[in-house]
Design brief:
This protein is α/β, with parallel strands linked by helices and 525 residues long. The chain has 23 helices and ten strands. Helix 10 packs across helix 12 and helix 16 crosses helix 17. The protein starts with 7 loop residues before the first helix and ends with a strand.
Length: 525
């Protein structure tokens, strides 16, 4: 009996609700490279293969060992002696027929030396279990071709993840606490015209109790401005007074008892978050003044062209484009649809103007104007209040210029920070591997040798406080072991960061993430 084809919308239904069709298309167009099919590396790929990553490549010149088969769910006893890249690839591909996989049984050092452009084709590179000098070479190679790099290593119950990305521009940040963009302090003409048709005093009780609270806000703000001379309440005390005005507007029955008007209750609850002045967030102002938005060229990305166009729009209107979305609220269907249509129409007009500016900018710099689509401009304008640009320090600089982050490390050590102690021992383990060909604890007398490495690094970093003896001993005791359940947990975390990078949605962590067995910490070094 033939297999029935599965509809992709049904197969990926849950994730489509998170990042949408366009996010899924970005994921399916992505190509991720994993260096070394370690336990955590294959767990990362598993959590990318399942949601439909386009393709992956595993670079690994080692054969499967008995230890691999014991710690890695994607390498079996029967794979011992086989090329590790190929064995892991075959097992991972069984999880999703939509995904393509490739195995490269080569040494990464050889690729860096003889195939400089090898990493250019990838959307993201994930490196596991490499020596410090190799990590530096890889970081420089990825930096040159503007490919994000994630360095990942698990050791016993702790883990280290380092993100290096030269520039990552985010349009859809999906903020947790998104405030509605109602323009209460500056209603636009179409909205003002509609509001003139709404007379609360002449409505019957049913219409009064089903008036969308955005209309209530505008009506009572007109009264507020007449009494106080400001478009919005300015502080907590004034917001409390405004709420009293709203409460007084709730109708009463013949006995003087207030009627149940859920729309007013909603307005009172939403007042603090909704009564905010229309403004341009500081992070958006910073992006608008970024050199990349000022010094455009034919090779500039669409993001920076749209930022330039956004600046031109703001120069004309003094505010960001309208977002065009309304929160849910108690209302009769027709008026909610009418108000929603007014906001959407204004948002579409604003996006059209930004698109017009953007295409004009494209023409001026020799870029194809149609390279920016209406949908791209619409999405950009809808999220213009949440734009984000992430630029991390290069890993090579962190290694070669230890003084650049010694201040942050010193401060954390003075406060006996557990994550910082884990960070230092991981960094020391990379160097130990470089010097001795294995990770601390995998041979006799490693404790004394590892202490020497840690001591030398502390001296290089000019740290004022010594590292706790326990942190050093713990790293040696872990013997570079890869615990499957830790690898699975960390792999899931890192896969989410990869998805953020390739879909350009949500905000990745900045620089370094440390997992200490019970907690996850991020360090911005």
């Amino acid at each position: 009996m033939a297999n029935t084809p599965v509809d992709k919308n049904q197969k990926y239904d849950r994730q489509l609700r998170l990042w949408g069709d366009h996010g899924q298309k970005s994921l399916e167009a992505s190509h991720v490279c994993l260096i070394n099919a370690s336990a955590v590396g294959t767990e990362i790929l598993k959590s990318l293969v399942l949601p439909g990553l386009g393709e992956f490549t595993i670079v690994d010149d080692q054969a499967v060992s008995g230890e691999d088969a014991g710690s890695n769910f994607f390498l079996l006893q029967e794979n011992i002696g086989q090329p590790r890249a190929e064995a892991a690839m075959k097992c991972l591909l069984e999880m999703n027929e939509d995904v393509s996989g490739h195995a490269v049984s080569s040494n990464v050092v050889s690729l860096l030396a003889h195939a400089e452009d090898f990493f250019q084709k990838f959307s993201c590179v994930i490196a596991t279990y490499l020596a410090e000098s190799v990590l530096v070479q890889l970081a420089e190679a990825c930096d040159r071709v503007h490919v994000p790099l994630l360095i990942v290593q698990c050791c016993g119950p702790v883990a280290y993840v380092r993100l290096q990305v030269a520039e990552h521009c985010i349009v859809e940040a999906h903020p947790d606490n998104e405030l509605a963009d109602l323009r209460l302090d500056r209603p636009f003409p179409a909205l003002s015209k509609f509001l003139e048709t709404q007379n609360l005093s002449t409505m019957d009780n049913k219409a009064h109790s089903h008036t969308p609270y955005v209309i209530l806000f505008h009506k009572y703000l007109e009264e507020w401005q007449e009494k106080h001379g400001t478009p919005l309440p300015q502080n907590y005390k004034e917001k409390r007074l405004f709420k009293e005005m709203l409460k007084a507007g709730i109708r009463t029955d013949e006995d003087g008892k207030q009627l149940s008007e859920e729309n007013f209750d909603e307005a009172l609850k939403a007042a603090n978050s909704s009564l905010t002045a229309t403004s341009i967030p500081s992070q958006v102002e910073s992006i608008l003044s970024d050199a990349c938005a000022e010094q455009l060229s034919e090779s500039s990305s669409n993001f920076w062209v749209l930022v330039k166009a956004l600046g031109m729009f703001i120069a004309e209107d003094g505010c960001l484009p309208l977002r065009g979305t309304l929160p849910d609220m108690t209302a009769d269907t027709q008026r909610y649809i009418d108000v929603q249509a007014i906001y959407r129409q204004k948002a579409a007009e604003d996006a059209s103007r930004v698109l017009e500016h953007a295409r004009g900018v494209c023409q001026a710099i020799g870029k194809q104007p149609t390279s920016i689509t209406e949908e791209e401009a619409r999405l950009f304008c809808k999220n213009s209040a949440f734009l984000k640009v992430l630029r991390t320090r290069s890993f090579a600089d962190e290694v070669r210029k230890p003084e650049i982050c010694s201040g942050e490390i010193n401060s954390a050590l003075d406060s006996e920070s557990e994550p910082m102690a884990v960070y230092i021992t991981f960094r020391a383990s990379f160097r130990f591997y470089e010097m001795h060909g294995h990770f601390p604890g995998q041979a006799e007398n490693d404790l004394a040798l590892f202490k020497d490495v840690v001591t030398n690094m502390i001296r290089e970093w000019n740290l004022s406080a010594p590292l706790a003896e326990k942190a050093i001993c713990d790293m040696v005791a872990y013997r570079g072991s890869q615990l499957p359940f830790i690898a699975g947990f960390v792999g899931a975390i890192v896969s989410q960061e990869v998805i953020k990078l390739v879909t350009k949605q949500f905000i990745p962590f900045n620089n370094t993430l440390i997992y200490s067995g019970t907690n996850v910490f991020t360090l911005q070094l």
